[in-house]
Every structure is written in structure tokens, then in C-alpha cells.
Specification:
Blueprint (H helix, E strand, L loop, with lengths): L1 H21 L3 H19 L30 E6 L5 H7 L11 E3 L5 E3 L25 E6 L9 H18 L6 E3 H4 L13 H6 L12 E4 L7 H15 L9 E4 L1 H8 L6 H13 L9 H14 L1
Parallel strand pairs: 1-4, 1-5, 2-4, 6-7
Antiparallel strand pairs: 2-3
Helix pairs in contact: 8-10
Length: 307
């Protein structure tokens, strides 16, 4: 009996050692847990207990509210890794000197690596803007897709992404419009995910918007802001179309590309870059700063969805 116990204990210890040695990220996992514990200690510090706040005129006693929660992610930002393998990316995100991270990484085989708790602030978005939000890292979840930046995205990878997006949307009540790409928030700096990314497929599942087929020929009015009366005319015309009305090629719907892009969310301080980012996401061909008649139809249609 004693011999059996010794053998069993030895096998158990060996299994633990093998399990630990099988994970090449055991050391960085320990570093992750250590940093998480440090944040936990900081979060558990009761209000008014920061002794270095000597310049603050606190009241006579501390009062902690009972109404609070963790940060709420409100966006999902999709990236391609622009690296040669998922292992390369995992290694990059575990090196302190890189100062870059993401909440999830998805390999070509569909394996999902969650590298950061959803409620932590990842370092994936960098400098960028969407609408009036200039700190996307603080309000978003980053997902990196193993892709060199030029190749199509693998089917197993897309299936896993859709399952993950479904979970994240339900868990955090993320609005449909808030599933966007890195190039959308940083149009002059980033071009990911690449033009082969199936944004239309995601929109069919409720992750982001896509355009409808509308028989209308928008008329460009330049870069100036369209008066509110003209915007109302656009809305009325759009509603008539959606309610079953017809719009022949002779009907011109007034549209200001700069305004439309801004309504969708793009930073239009560099209009050419914003147009390229829009075309990368929604047109996915001829990625330049020129808007064709067909591009304008699509822009108009999306403008109505984002109003």
C-alpha cells in the first residue's frame, strides 16, 4: 500500500511538472498574475486612504459608495497581426519592451488565446479617434487575427471570431455599430484588417453595419457642412426609399462626403485618409482617396444607418 502511495504521489508531481513545462509562457503568466495582484491591491484601497493626497481637503471621515462597477467595454476593435505566426504574436505580447497587447488573439486554426481580462485596459488601439472618442484603449476590447496583412482570413479563424463576438456582444451589451477595424480609428496610420476581411459577413451576424442596394445617385456638395434643412431632406428621401418608394437615376440625393464620414465615426481632419479608411472597410477595392458614384451610393446608405 505504501509503495502504491509513493508511486501515485510521484506520478502526480510528474504530471504537474510536465504540465508546467509544456506551457512556454509559464514565466510570463506568473508576471501577469503578479501585476494583476498589484492592481487588485490598488483597487481595494478604500477611498480617502491615499496618504500622499495631502493637498486634498478631505471630510472628517471616509465614505465609500455602494454603487460602482468595473470599466465597461463599449467597442470591439479588430486587427491583423502582420506577423508570420500566432506564436510570433504571443511572444510579442509577452515582452514588456514591446508595450503592445490585445485581449484576444485568434490563430488560423481557430484557437483563441485570451491574453487579458475584458475589464483591463489593453494596449492595442494606440493613437486614434472614433467619433468624439480619443482614447479607444480605455473603452474597447482588442482582437488580433493571425494574418500577415495580405492573405485571406482562414475559415476556422472566422468561425471562432464570430463565436467570440457573439459572447462579447451579449456579455457587454456592445452596440452593433461599435464593431470596427484598427484602420477605422487610425486612418492615417493603420491598414488593418486587410481588404480581404469579410465585414459584410460580420454585419449579417449583427457585428457592424453594411450597406443595402439603393437605386439612388448622390450629388456631392463639397466639403462644407450641409445645413440642417438639407440633412432633413436626405432623411426624408431615405425613409421614402426604405418604405418601398422608388428612386430613379434622375433623383439626386444631396450628400456631403465629409459630413457623412464624420457621422459614421471617422476622423476627417485628414479627409483623404478618412476616405481611404472608409474604402478599405466598405468598398475593399481601389483603396484611394477618390469617391466614385458607386462609392457615394454606399456612403449615403451607411450615413443613414449611422444617423
Amino acid at each position: 500500500m505504501r509503495t502504491f502511495s509513493i508511486v501515485w504521489v510521484g506520478a502526480f508531481v510528474l504530471a504537474i511538472l510536465v504540465g508546467c513545462s509544456a506551457n512556454p509562457y509559464s514565466k510570463t503568466n506568473r508576471d501577469h498574475k503578479k501585476q494583476a495582484r498589484e492592481f487588485a491591491r490598488e483597487l481595494k484601497a478604500f477611498p480617502q486612504q491615499h496618504l500622499d493626497d495631502t493637498l486634498i481637503n478631505y471630510g472628517p471621515y471616509p465614505v465609500g459608495t455602494t454603487n460602482f462597477s468595473l470599466r465597461k467595454p463599449n467597442y470591439v476593435i479588430l486587427h491583423h497581426t502582420a506577423q508570420n505566426s500566432v506564436e510570433h504574436t504571443l511572444n510579442t505580447f509577452t515582452l514588456p519592451r514591446t508595450s503592445v497587447s490585445s485581449h484576444y488573439v485568434i490563430g488560423k486554426d481557430g484557437d483563441i488565446y485570451q491574453m487579458l481580462n475584458d475589464y483591463y485596459r489593453g494596449w492595442h488601439a494606440g493613437a486614434g479617434k472614433w467619433g468624439n472618442n480619443t482614447d479607444l484603449n480605455s473603452s474597447s476590447i482588442g482582437i488580433e487575427l493571425d494574418n500577415n496583412g495580405f492573405e485571406p482570413f482562414a475559415e476556422l479563424q472566422m468561425e471562432s471570431l464570430l463565436e467570440l463576438l457573439k459572447v462579447l456582444k451579449e456579455r457587454h451589451s456592445i452596440p452593433t455599430a461599435n464593431f470596427i477595424g484598427h484602420s477605422d480609428i487610425a486612418p492615417s496610420r493603420k491598414v488593418d484588417p486587410n481588404p480581404t476581411f469579410p465585414w459584410g459577413r460580420l454585419a449579417e451576424e449583427g457585428f457592424g453595419y453594411w450597406y443595402d442596394e439603393i437605386e439612388a445617385n448622390p450629388k456631392v456638395v463639397g466639403d462644407s457642412i450641409v445645413p440642417s434643412e438639407a440633412i432633413r431632406e436626405i432623411e426624408i428621401a431615405g425613409n421614402e426609399i426604405h418604405q418601398g418608394g422608388s428612386a430613379s437615376d434622375s433623383i439626386h440625393l444631396t450628400i456631403d462626403p465629409k459630413l457623412a464620414l464624420r457621422v459614421i465615426g471617422y476622423d476627417v481632419s485628414d479627409l483623404d485618409a478618412a476616405i481611404k479608411a472608409f474604402k478599405l472597410h466598405f468598398i475593399q477595392k481601389d483603396i484611394n482617396s477618390e469617391l466614385t458614384d458607386e462609392d457615394l451610393k454606399i456612403l449615403y446608405n451607411l450615413y443613414l444607418k449611422y444617423l
